[in-house]
Amino acid sequence: MIIKTEIIDSFLEHGNLDSVKDHWIYHSIVPGQYTFEEPLYVNKELLVHLYETIQSRLYNFKPLNEALWHQVFGDMQIPDTTAIYLIAGSPKPYDGVVREDQSGMRCIILDLVRLCTYADSLEELDFIAADFLTHELSHVLMSQRYPYSKHLPKVNVLKQLVFDEGIAHFLSYKEDVLSLDWHTDKMNNRRESVYQKLRYYLTQEYALTPEAFSKANTGSFWDKYASISGMFAVISYCEQGGKLEELLDKGPNALLEIIEKGI
């Protein structure tokens, strides 16, 4: 993997982003727009720790739920050409994204300042580093099997988002993810809420406005109706005896059938 640190290095050196705020990344976070926000408050101790932790984990990458990861992806390897940009300056909710660089290659962009806002201690940051790297690197492998096309109908893109984000959220949610109780009243209500929204948009394509499409995978965690529907469906798939080793071959329909049944 190639780790690009010019933006975060400049921020740590100067305390601002003046020298890098015209970087191409700020034109790609939201394609076609300039998206930049100067950080106002930074806990430098947390920031430096996260910076060092992420670099260490990238050089010795082990995902959360390592056994499940290998069941899903088998012997697939993260390409050596995968670029990870460690940055500051992206606004909410863009803490970690996968985008295309100037040559059209997909790359991971992590805003370390924004990630630091999720933690109050160095120990919490260690989990956040593992969480985000597991999540974003799973997208890299998924894109090898199911590359996104800009020319697909919106509903087809939404179905692929359910699959891609569902697996990424499942693998990165917690360590030992399948040991959790996914059938409490709170979890059941969350599942039904996102399933209802997703089923609506899958059948009412006219309602998939840019704002509605954005909410499929951004905003409050449990309200991301495509991503969280996919995560719940992967869990149900496992609970019903489905083999994760076969999930990539089955593709998005394996999860969409579960969601349609409301399982």
Helicity range of the residues?
40-55%
The amount of beta strand, in percent, is 5-15%
What letter string, H or E per element, gives the SSE order? EHHHEEEHHHHHHHH
Span between N and C termini? 38 Å
Helix/strand structural class: alpha/beta
* Contiguous uncertain segments of 5+ residues: none
**Gross geometry:** globular
Describe the largest sheet: 4 strands, mixed
Arrangement of strands in the largest sheet:
1-2-4-3
What does this structure look like?
The structure is a single chain. This protein is an alpha/beta fold and 263 residues long. Helices cover 51% and strands 7% of the residues. It contains 11 helices and 4 strands, in the order βαααβββαααααααα. Strands 1-2-4-3 form a 4-stranded mixed β-sheet. Strand 3 and strand 4 form a beta hairpin. Helix 2 (44-59) packs across helix 5.
Which helices and strands appear, and what pairs or packs with what?
Elements lengths: L1 E3 L1 H9 L29 H16 L6 H8 L9 E5 L8 E5 L5 E6 H5 L5 H24 L8 H19 L12 H19 L6 H5 L10 H15 L7 H4 L2 H9 L2
Parallel strand pairs: 1-2, 2-4
Antiparallel strand pairs: 3-4
Helix pairs in contact: 2-5, 5-6, 6-9, 7-9, 9-11
